[in-house]
Predict the 3D structure of the following.
Amino acid sequence: MLGKFIVFEGGEGAGKTTQLNLVNEWLSWSGWTNRIKAHIQGDYSPVLTTREPGGTILGKGIRKLLLDVTATGNEAIDERAELLLFAADRAQHVSSCLLPHLQHGSLVLCDRYTDSTIAYQGYGRALDLTLIHQLNQIATQGLESDLTFWLDIDAESGLARTHNREQDPEIESDRMEANEISFHQRLRQGFTDLSRQYAERIVRIEAQQPNTVVAQQIQESFEPYLQKWYP
Ligand code: TYD
């Protein structure tokens, strides 16, 4: 693949979105975006920021159904239905957004990807991990991240942060955040296990530090990869 695929993962309130945006700005002012431009084929942007769920038009609809408790009225979402909706969002995102950009040389910064499904649906909801891996395989067509930053924060501190921050204006009341604390503790264990299993692509970043310190550590870990990819 001509482009590079960078993913930001973590539990609630880890600060992924903030850090993804800071990386995007840093790439621009430090000159990396210009260097990536030289590798672009056709009319594609050198750096693309996107997210799951909700990186496509179909995905925005799925995101609302999945996350907004008011979107399904009083009807609870079955765990398997939830898993399949995340997979549907991903399948659309991979085929209509991620693959075309990566094939034309973009560096893609993506807020969440397959590890979130393993952590949230696999560890959090206790759905079968083998089945989730198979679904991820179908949805991604085998596309894996080149580098994943896992922003790690303990469940209590992360949730406390979500209560003080600006919420997604599209989501009235977040269904995932409303899960019991043990759910959030289990999914953190999921990310912990994943980072051991895929140590070559997952970098753990201590997220319970000031944003500027976290950003600095991400840049320091990212820089050697950029130098290797864009010498
Ligand atoms: P996100 O928009 O990153 O929300 P936040 O910024 O509050 O973390 O993610 C949306 C929610 O969807 C989040 O609670 C994690 C959850 N999620 C899953 O449960 N499984 C998945 O496969 C993905 C991609 C997200």
About this structure: The CA atoms of residues 52 and 113 lie 6 Å apart. Residues 4-229 form a domain with the Rossmann fold fold (CATH 3.40.50.300). The mean pLDDT is 95.
